[in-house]
Amino acid sequence: MTRRTTTAPGGGTFLKTATALQTLTLFFQSVTAGMLLTSPLAGEVHHVGSRVMYGASMLYVLAAILAWRPGGGSPRPVLYATGFLLLASAQVVLGIAHLPSFHVPLGVVMFALSTLALVRALSPRVLLRPAAGQ
């Protein structure tokens, strides 16, 4: 017989925080990208925000590794975070190269993926575990 239990209490708080920070920095970047249309100062803000977003992506990788290794959880968040860091790297390269036809759509995709990761991290999960004594 199996019983349903939730994940370990307090597990993944750092991962949830890192995912939320990454999502917020991507939202900030979308706002400053829109501001580029009307304000010459927005370029500098967007540039600084890109560094913060990249740092948040690296923090997401670190949080995913720390959530996975000690508790022996699924390595799937590490794969997501690593893939996301690769997307962030491509985004930086496209921004530096001034290729908005690729930079802007990739930014939209990254925000959508980060939002999905945040929803997944914040949603309660149910795991099937063997009942005690089996």
Which residues sit in consecutive blocks of at least 5 with pLDDT less than 50?
A: 1-9
Spatial order of the strands in the main sheet?
1-2
Biggest sheet overview: 2 strands, antiparallel
Mean pLDDT: 86
Shape: elongated
User: How much strand?
Assistant: 5-15%
End-to-end gap: 8 Å
Contiguous helical run count: 4
Sequence of secondary-structure elements: EHHHHE
Helix content: over 70%
Over the alpha carbons, how many angstroms does the gyration radius reach?
A: 18 Å
Q: How does the SSE layout of this entry go?
A:
Layout: E1 2-6, H1 13-35, H2 42-68, H3 76-96, H4 100-122, E2 126-130
Antiparallel strand pairs: 1-2
Q: Quick summary of this structure?
A:
This protein has 134 residues and is mainly α. 70% of the residues lie in helices and 7% in strands. It has four helices and two strands; from the N terminus they run E-H-H-H-H-E.
Describe this structure in words.
- With 134 residues, this protein is mainly α.
- Helix content is 70%, strand content 7%.
- It has 4 helices and 2 strands.
- It has helices at residues 13-35, 42-68, 76-96, 100-122; strands spanning 2-6, 126-130.
- A two-stranded antiparallel ribbon has the order 1-2.
- α3 runs antiparallel to α4 (100-122).
- It is elongated.
- Mean pLDDT is 86; it is low at 1-9.
Features:
mainly alpha, 2 strands, 134 residues, disordered N terminus
